């Protein structure tokens, strides 16, 4: 039997129909492929059996089943020739029509959903982009050699309070303002307050232990300007009986008003 076609196509409804066996699906598709718009399918059971490698009984049973399920229609039978018409095209057309109708109903919602999905997708992409850029910047920063950072800036009010505490222990209260400037500068450069305070105490004790005259004690402005906290002071000598840092002749400087 001659025909002009390039292959067969099994509709979804047929392929997923659990009521049909694999052989029955092949028979049905063969009938559909032989169906022409003018003459429809006039193949005999014998031909279909030989083509599908099965018995004529199998073909006869399958055709009755197809007619019952509505896949094909028997157009005519004159006692010798039977004409079968495939309804797969009609089933497919109905399926498409139903699909198009359903699509029209839900299309507006789909547009909204697509818009929302696009927005969410864009948000997610932007978030991923931001995270990537943040990680990339972190990597770039890690590759940059660390720069030498200065000490944390201390409020000037706090520095003045520190200085006043240390200045009260210095043995010669002269040049306070210049001493304050030198102290603030040193603190901004990272010199620790305790370092300066301990050095002042050491210098004070040394002056007391040596009973050094006032004229030989550095003025406060000189001591701070010369960064004398970096100097080394010898160990304190033992004072005479009844003499201490508290009752030495230098105690008068603790209460002296510095100007």
What share of the residues lie within helices? 55-70%
Biggest sheet record: 2 strands, antiparallel
Strands, count: 2
Low confidence ranges: 236-259
Broad structural category: mainly alpha
Radius of gyration: 53 Å
Q: How many individual helices?
A: 9
What is the first-to-last residue Cα distance? 127 Å
Give the overall silhouette: rod-shaped
State mean pLDDT (0 to 100 scale).
Answer: 77
Our estimate of the beta-strand percent is under 5%
Would you list the SSEs in sequence order as H and E? HHHHEEHHHHH
Q: Going across the major beta sheet, what is the strand order?
A: 1-2
Question: What keywords describe this structure?
Answer:
Arc Repressor Mutant, subunit A, mainly alpha, 259 residues, single chain, two-stranded antiparallel ribbon
Notes on the structure:
The protein is mostly helical. Among the domains are: 12-90, Arc Repressor Mutant, subunit A (Orthogonal Bundle), CATH 1.10.10; 156-254, no CATH class. It has 9 helices and 2 strands. A two-stranded antiparallel sheet has the order 1-2. The longest helix is centred in the middle third of the chain and has 56 residues, at 88-143. The model is unreliable at 236-259 (pLDDT under 50).
């Amino acid at each position: 039997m001659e025909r002009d076609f390039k292959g067969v196509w099994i509709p979804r409804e047929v392929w997923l129909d659990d009521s049909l066996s694999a052989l029955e699906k092949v028979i049905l598709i063969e009938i559909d492929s032989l169906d022409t718009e003018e003459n429809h399918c006039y193949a005999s059971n014998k031909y279909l059996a030989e083509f599908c490698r099965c018995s004529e009984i199998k073909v006869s049973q399958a055709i009755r089943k197809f007619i019952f399920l509505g896949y094909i229609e028997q157009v005519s039978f004159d006692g010798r020739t039977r004409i079968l018409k495939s309804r797969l095209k009609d089933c497919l057309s109905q399926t498409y029509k139903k699909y198009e109708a359903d699509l029209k109903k839900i299309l507006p919602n789909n547009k909204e959903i697509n818009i929302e999905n696009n927005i969410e997708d864009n948000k997610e992409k932007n978030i991923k982009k931001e995270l990537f850029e943040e990680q990339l910047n972190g990597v770039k920063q890690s590759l940059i050699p660390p720069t030498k950072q200065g000490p944390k800036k201390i409020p000037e009010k706090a520095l003045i309070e520190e200085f006043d505490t240390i200045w009260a222990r210095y043995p010669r209260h002269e040049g306070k303002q210049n001493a304050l400037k030198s102290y603030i500068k040193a603190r901004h450069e990272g010199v620790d307050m305790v370092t300066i305070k301990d050095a002042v105490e050491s210098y004070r004790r040394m002056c007391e232990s040596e009973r050094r005259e006032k004229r030989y004690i550095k003025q406060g402005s000189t001591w701070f300007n010369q960064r004398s906290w970096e100097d080394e002071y010898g160990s304190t000598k033992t004072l005479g009986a009844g003499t201490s840092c508290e009752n030495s002749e230098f105690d008068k400087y603790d209460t002296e008003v510095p100007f």
